[in-house]
Amino acid sequence: MAGSNFGTLFKLTSFGESHGIALGGVIDGMPANIEIDFEAIQLELDRRRPGQSDLVSPRKEKDVVEFLSGFFDGKSTGTPIGFIIKNDDQHSKDYENIKDSFRPSHADYTYAEKYGIRDYRGGGRSSARETVARVVAGALAKQVLNHLDIRFSTYVCQVGSISLEQLGFYPKELIEASLVRCPNESSANSMIQLIEQTRSEGDTIGGVIACCVENVPAGIGEPVFDKLHAELGKAMLSINAVKGFEIGSGFAAAAMKGSEHNDLFNADGSTKSNHSGGIQGGISNGMPIQFKVAFKPVASILQNQEMLTNDGALKASEIKGRHDACVVPRAVPIVEAMAAMVILDFYLRNKSVHL
Amino acid sequence: MAGSNFGTLFKLTSFGESHGIALGGVIDGMPANIEIDFEAIQLELDRRRPGQSDLVSPRKEKDVVEFLSGFFDGKSTGTPIGFIIKNDDQHSKDYENIKDSFRPSHADYTYAEKYGIRDYRGGGRSSARETVARVVAGALAKQVLNHLDIRFSTYVCQVGSISLEQLGFYPKELIEASLVRCPNESSANSMIQLIEQTRSEGDTIGGVIACCVENVPAGIGEPVFDKLHAELGKAMLSINAVKGFEIGSGFAAAAMKGSEHNDLFNADGSTKSNHSGGIQGGISNGMPIQFKVAFKPVASILQNQEMLTNDGALKASEIKGRHDACVVPRAVPIVEAMAAMVILDFYLRNKSVHL
Amino acid sequence: MAGSNFGTLFKLTSFGESHGIALGGVIDGMPANIEIDFEAIQLELDRRRPGQSDLVSPRKEKDVVEFLSGFFDGKSTGTPIGFIIKNDDQHSKDYENIKDSFRPSHADYTYAEKYGIRDYRGGGRSSARETVARVVAGALAKQVLNHLDIRFSTYVCQVGSISLEQLGFYPKELIEASLVRCPNESSANSMIQLIEQTRSEGDTIGGVIACCVENVPAGIGEPVFDKLHAELGKAMLSINAVKGFEIGSGFAAAAMKGSEHNDLFNADGSTKSNHSGGIQGGISNGMPIQFKVAFKPVASILQNQEMLTNDGALKASEIKGRHDACVVPRAVPIVEAMAAMVILDFYLRNKSVHL
Amino acid sequence: MAGSNFGTLFKLTSFGESHGIALGGVIDGMPANIEIDFEAIQLELDRRRPGQSDLVSPRKEKDVVEFLSGFFDGKSTGTPIGFIIKNDDQHSKDYENIKDSFRPSHADYTYAEKYGIRDYRGGGRSSARETVARVVAGALAKQVLNHLDIRFSTYVCQVGSISLEQLGFYPKELIEASLVRCPNESSANSMIQLIEQTRSEGDTIGGVIACCVENVPAGIGEPVFDKLHAELGKAMLSINAVKGFEIGSGFAAAAMKGSEHNDLFNADGSTKSNHSGGIQGGISNGMPIQFKVAFKPVASILQNQEMLTNDGALKASEIKGRHDACVVPRAVPIVEAMAAMVILDFYLRNKSVHL
Asked: Which among D15, D73, D114 has CB closest to A69?
């Protein structure tokens, strides 16, 4: 109930603060007897890692995952997978100045209001550093889904007001070829330029990530409250800095007529258009699942903004620390990880529909 | 796991098909000893009811809720509340023609793929008629939240491309004064005109609903996976026809800079702007909670569109039945009901943070 | 969280008070496309019903179940099954005298302490009448398990100090041939005599029920916290008046040595003895699952016992109402229903172990 | 669903195998701002530790708990508590001989049937070594309950056929003064003698643990499925080697009459007897909560017993490893830990009954 669990049959429970000893988690419900590529998991963490390029936070975390249980002879045993990622680059002193103050648009104030105590170092539990555990669980989920040929294409489709015109399933190579993880070279270059410009001003900028999942069989998802896209939405909105979620046509649907929005069938059950985003009535229809996730600009800007102190004063103070000017390039593997966890969880849930 | 439950401490379990004997549900976790205004619950159902005005579906359901348990001497006892709403206007014959066919952009095909059997009458369980149970539970939640002075303002802010400029907390009287539940008279009139025009063409149109919740105390919401806005997002995306969700700045945040997006504090802990939508790090900050929900146009259009048959043929066939040309006016009480359930649930969850 | 749900993938949510309008529930997670024998469900309710013989409570409930959803053309659709059982023999006046008093060893006092309000008529929600919903859900679970050849033998093995020597799998005919549901005729006769004697004294007597489940495949059950026998234990202890649970050797194991208690293997994986009761490490081993459930004597005796009043006085008062002198004969179908729900739930849970 | 979680609002998720790198867990829902006595937690682990006396397994685990998150300045922050206990005395070679065989009355066979793969070293996940995580979580729960003056007395009340006559609340000093954790010196001595005798024969012996919890306020527990004693029963039955559970009068109730079993009230709401074991209708009544837990003899005996091989042969083979001749002395802190977790969880759940 305290919100550190995600999923039902494939379930991640995570723990850890930005500047504590370690972050980690427990993955329960991993199918048994799956051969694991441990290097592939580390590669996913590397995609999320700060310091991976000039474009992102220079915090120097190696983010090495250590698995403590759940595997035997290189295979999953079906028992819970415990894992930790140690924190080793803890510049806790950077945060002494916010010990008794709340930064604007951070969770400092709300954590203090909720708990009456907070680990102020780097945002504590509210830091996006928490997402390392998601990436580990998602990497495992993707390896399971690989056996079902379910594949993901996740990329940056907007930074500031520069956006990719054409969405769809882009190959991973194209996405990873770009520092900003946008598969279109010219858009990518403009985005990179915008991020660098923004950073030079001590400012930050928002963005949007698109995700497309192919080969999800028809019939996955639960009707009514646990619709597949409702759970995808929750998964995405639970990622730090996310402000919006669209499945298929999204907000554009509001301005459309039924006669243009309806996805007409082909004889094989596929549809001529995909405004539905691959889901009808909360259940996959076999078409690609397509959604978009909006991220706000990082709140930690290197400009002077007033903070609120514990005793109700406003105090001018520059935020220190090592921050991204734009979060979306590093958020791509996080979005993909959460999507993989949801799809695998619902795939497993669907197994109980028939005896 | 089959997705008929919503909530954790305040939990609704619902059942029922569009053309079955009755719909209903069980509400578990209702706080004890709360005096109930049963008429107010029926009024909420009346707001959702078809046939309430010329603008909406002429299906003639009275939608009378019968409570079977959970109350004594007009007060809640803390035990589960069972309730039913009988179906009495079942034009099941209207659906004979889709017995072996799948309507485009309905859930006919996905239910058949998932279950291998479906109640085709009126969409069965996939019908939006299911939302009556949500409205009942939401009405009870609102009565509880009234004791905490938590108040809701939910209204239509867009139909087609006509949209309300100014969002905020509008009084219920203004909203209910309009057939389309838009608090601005001139926008409302344009929306009504557009809906009527669309209906005359046998077509349908999408829309957007805004919700603003005042007086939610700071500190409500769980960090990490069960962020307050993540659960609100799931709640909204679980409503039929919803394609998008935005909290606070939403997708507009993607094009903003940190220096403009950050909500600077006042000395009392409130903020000068509210791009966050009342939630930071998944936890309420005491500012109004503001979100928007996008609805696609109703799939049942009165135009000829090809359906797919069970045996893989495409067949031209007009959809019968009594449908809305625009779903948003009647969806207002549903959005509000889901919001109330989420807020109450998280309010109760928060009680265990401190001994 | 308020405890009105049971199960995870096959889940019952129940509601209703002894003297309210109706009891009922929602069954979520029923596998789809299962042909249902509705008469068989009613027969299970008849086995639990008061007034079925001279031996039990003369309360005259017909206990007819009405299904409101979840079936189509006589088959389960996979969507939630709503059902109600109306109360029609409500002698609420019988309970006027306990309006402001607490009967000894009933839940009157604890409900008042917990909720600050209680429906005193017939014990309200605390009445064993609540178990009708369990019997309905269990009857459905048994029909599903029939397809897997999983079979139950549930019977009375002790009343007072009269006990059945030999436990095992007795045929249903033998069990149902006896008013007391004990498959051994001579033990049954002694038990009946004891119950009648006890009733004539205005007193009540306890008893024990044994349950044996055959053909549960090896591998069902979850390790660690959700061991199969742990969940069976919880299921049984949740039934009114239950004070103890034993799996296999039970408390007798405490006095045994490992060399006698260990179940040695046969070459086919079966075991020469079954002290384990068919479960090792929380997981079924393919042997019959065997457990016993102890029931206390019914608290409602027709003798004068002091009650406690709301304002802290002790008041001599005879309990009215129509009560059983021994609860175990009617509890047999309840024990079996709970066992069936647990086994089906864990059978379904096991499906996600392998991709 | 895979059973590695326990609790709802105060929730433990555990992981780890007997001979893996580490065991550990995540505790979610710890109330915030509680000052922690870390030494007291380690002391609880020491009570469970093998090698603590001549009477128990000589396995030399130091069992040092390392906390990775959830605390700040010595207080709980309300965020999840991650912790690990490293395995350092891994005699994995001891288990080479069971690599392809199943020991009688162990979980080797059932794990193989369920997962198709197993970590055979020391029983892997099925080892009672898993309970270290429970002891850590229980120690934290007890520290929280201390603030409410809720106190535990847990002790051995039976070994083989030697049993303690008088149950009740014994002071911790008396219990811990005895190697066998039985508070009566003469019984304790007989038990110790019996255990040593049994060990000298290469055999093992069962036992019973009693637990008494004082000062639980009236009103804790959920009616119907989540009765307080039902969840206590599940908690106890989930501990390795447990075969039976009794609340209050337990199986003895079966032979009692209502007139003797009923607990008559005193004017202050307490009762003259406590056959109910402190719980009526699933809800605490303010009297001491009393229950008993039966443990089977340890299956690992140092005598020759046939094992079953993977390929269906029976093979005579002595079990190696370092085992207890009687498990109950070391199980005392485990029983107490699980009881504390349940009581705290239900205490927190009860907070949402009233607004």
From this structure: D15
Task: Give the pair of three-digit tokens for residue D145.
Answer: 């309950």
> pTM (2 decimals)?
0.97
Token reading at B39: 């008429």
**pLDDT tens-digit readout, C133-173:** 999 999 999 999 999 999 999 999 999 999 998 999 999 99
Structure tokens at B186: 């001139």
Window C:47-106, CB contacts with B under 8 Å: 66-70, 72-73, 75-82, 84
Distance from CA of C97 to the nearest CA of D (A): 17
Residue B295, chain A, CB below 8 Å: the answer is yes
User: Apex CA A178: angle with CA A175 and CA A179, to 5°?
Assistant: 125
- Parallel/antiparallel/unpaired status of strands C207-214 and C151-159: antiparallel
With contacts defined as CB-CB under 8 Å, which chain A residues touch D72?
117-119, 124
What residue segments make up the domains of chain D, in order of their start? 2-350
Determine the residue among D125, D234, D236, D323 to mutate to test chain C binding: the one whose Cβ has the most chain C Cβ atoms within 10 Å: D234
Q: ipTM of this predicted complex?
A: 0.97
d(CA C7, CA C9): 6
Among A31-35, B302-306, C260-264, name the one with the lowest average pLDDT.
B302-306
Strand partners, C280: C283
- The sheet carrying A101-102 orders its strands as A101-102, A304-309, A314-318
Q: Which residues of C57-82 are buried (b: 16+ CB within 10 A; e: fewer)?
A: bebebebebebbbbbbeebbbbbbbb
Contact C39, B87 (CB under 8 A): no
Q: Which of residues 1-40 of D touch A (CB under 8 A)?
A: 1-5, 8-9, 11, 13-17, 20-26, 28-29, 32-33
Contact between chains at D277 and C246 (C-beta distance less than 8 A): no
In sequence order, the β-bridge partners of residue D292 are D210, D246
Q: What is the residue-wise DSSP string for B89-148?
A: ---GGGGGGGTTEE-TTSSHHHHHHHHS----GGGGGGSGGGHHHHHHHHHHHHHHHHTT
Whether C203 sits inside 8 A of D258 (CB atoms) is yes
How far is the C-alpha of C39 from the C-alpha of C139, rounded, in Å?
10
| Record: fold of A2-350 | Chorismate synthase, AroC fold (3.60.150)
The helix/strand/coil state of A127 is coil
Question: Across-strand partners of B304?
Answer: B318
For chains A and D, count residue pairs whose Cβ atoms are closer than 8 Å.
176
For chain A, count helices (H), then strands (E).
Answer: 8, 17
Q: What is the pLDDT of residues A86-116, one digit of tens each?
A: 998 666 677 787 888 999 999 999 999 999 9
Nearest to A4 among D28, D33, D115 (CB): D28
